[in-house]
Amino acid sequence: MEAQAIARHVRVTPRKARRMVDLIRGKQASEAVTILTFAPQDAAVPVRKVLQSAIANARVKADKAGEPFHENDLVISRIFVDEGVTLKRFRARAQGRAARINKRTSHITVVVASKEGAR
Q1: Which band of pLDDT confidence, cut at 50, 70 and 90, is reported for residue 1?
Q2: Which of 10, 34, 42, 92 ranks highest by number of CB atoms within 10 Å?
Q3: Helices in 66-86 by DSSP H: which ranges?
Q4: Keywords of this protein's UniProt record, alphabetized (predicted)?
Q5: How far apart are CA 49 and CA 102, in angstroms?
């Protein structure tokens, strides 16, 4: 059984989010939540929220199918960060100049699967 969650337009740069994603790839879902809870980086918060959403989606999917659900059996089978839209901002400067500021966003995707389904 697989379940996924996607967060779009997250206001974290993809490079910073990939650091957190690489840290938890392939681990058990409950262990990954613990790692992200205590990680000092700001990018850990949105990644943790998406992971918890994927776990909740797996719980709902198991309930609908009438299968037993054990959170300890879930493994992160796939997790990746794609680049989202770039928010373009301008800040006025002296003598009519304008500094362009690009704010990057991310799309975070997490797929969790039961241990036998992850292989």
Answers
A1: confident
A2: 10
A3: none
A4: Ribonucleoprotein, Ribosomal protein, RNA-binding, rRNA-binding
A5: 25
